[in-house]
Amino acid sequence: GSCLLKGSRGGHVVIRFALGGCTNRPFYRIVAANSRRARDGKYLEQLGCLDPLPNAHGEKVAGLNLERLRYWLGCGAQLSRPAEKLLGLAGFLPLHPMTVTAAERLRRRRQREQQQPQAAPEDGSAEPGTGT
Amino acid sequence: GKAAQPKPAFTDEAVQTLLYKMTGLDLHKVFRPVKKGLKPPHYKLMTEAQLEEATRKAVEEAKTKLIMPPVLNEREPIDDVLAEDKVLEGTETAKYVFTDLSYSIPHRERFIVVREPNGVLRKATWEERDRMIQIFFPKEGRRVIPPTLFRDENLGTVFQQDRHEDVLNMCIAQFEPDSPDYIRVHHRTYEDIEKRAKYDLLRSTRHFGGMVWYLVSRKKTDGLLIDMINRDLLEDATSLITLYHMLHPECQSAKEAKEGKLQGVDLIKVFVKTESQREGYIQLALQAYEEAMATSSAS
Questions:
Q1: Beta-carbon separation of A90 and B95 below 8 A
Q2: Which of B95, B98, B102 sits opposite A67 (nearest CB)?
Q3: Which of A14, B40, B158, B207 has its CA 20 to 30 A from that of B268?
Q4: Domain of life, per the record (chain B) (predicted)?
Q5: pLDDT band at A115 (very low <50, low <70, confident <90, very high)
Q6: Chain A residues lying within 8 Å of B91, measured CB to CB
Q7: pLDDT-based confidence at residue B122 (cuts at 50, 70, 90)
Q8: What's the pLDDT score for residue B4?
């Protein structure tokens, strides 16, 4: 039927994460696949894996087949955003700008939360006087 | 003056031949039944010539089984930072370990990097490297986390059961030859054997050479010498002393031996007089040996 001809019209190769594992236990495989395939469906080649939960030594283990990754990137494969971020963390690609932006946003939010509790007790002490 | 000769290494041909001669070739011990799946015994009917051929082939196989595992210095810890990104501080709670899974790189040259939660990208330590390589490229007989057997407190129990050879075989399977754990377990085993004078446990195994090398470099050869004389292995005793002289050429017995070009029992006597701590015991053992030789040649 039509599933046999899926590889021949349209779509491009992407390198992205395919989710596996069970409930409350994710496991990602880094995979080169046609962009129109299902996320966990048939892929061209597995290029590595990522375990997002830390192990007994407190590490998140990731494996990357850099030789084959270079081959697919040379063939013109595109990367999904999480894949780009992971490769930026690994040092294979430069750090993704959104990683930097997210880090700065997190830092700013934490600063704001630190300043709010200092402001809140002042409000709390003023409120009972004016409220009732 | 004279140019000092470089100190002989474990891998030198002369050293290896001496150690190999001392290891001995007891076929019954080398081909002792290893615990495998049960199979009924296999009998063959052979002529004298065929039996000789089979023994020759067995000797060849035994030689491959007796190849000595390497003796290396402890490896230097890895301490290399590739990048520092202070921006990432506080975003992650756990570190990421990235392993390069390309198939055709040797394991020593593989890239294994760690991204710490404070943003530093550094090369992985040797323990992390060994663990990751075992996870992705598992080797038979090796565990990801080393068994508790290799801790100092548990080694004593195994030594009491006289299972030094099994411990050393497991150690070779588990650790790399230049890792500190491998060296520590081996040294502990050799010390225990030397303390209880159980040299025969390792004779005719591939660990004997390493043990002799360890004892000779630390000048603890007395017990081994006594054991060899008691078992009437005079050639082994002379090769032991030759090895000692090769490793410590500046000691007095080495100089005397070179001047007098001594051989055999004379070499041992000179060595006993100058270098050993337990002179009395060795003299006694030599006397007993000479009496035994006299009675056997008389009768």
A1: no
A2: B102
A3: B207
A4: Eukaryota
A5: very high
A6: 99, 102-103, 106
A7: very high
A8: 40
**Better-predicted residue by pLDDT, B170 or B278:** B170
Architecture (CATH level 2) of domain A13-114: 2-Layer Sandwich (3.30)
Is residue A1's pLDDT more than 50?
Answer: no
Q: Which chain B residue has its CA at the smallest distance from A46's CA?
A: B101
Whose CA is closest to B223, among B256, B254, B191? Answer: B191
Quote the CA–CA distance of B82 and A90 in Å, as a whole number. Answer: 11
* Domain limits, chain B: 81-124
Which residue reads 């041909």 in tokens? B13
- Alpha carbon distance A29, A50 (integer Å): 6
Decide if pLDDT at B9 tops 60: yes
Distance CA B170, CA B181 (A): 12
- Chain B residue numbers with beta carbons less than 8 Å from the beta carbon of A96 are none
- Nearest-CB residue to A89 (from B103, B104, B115): B115
Map out the domains of chain A as residue ranges: 13-114
Beta-carbon separation of B102 and A68 below 8 A: yes
pLDDT in tens, A35-75: 999 999 999 999 999 999 999 999 999 999 999 999 999 99
- Pairwise CA distance, residues B169 & B112, whole Å: 28
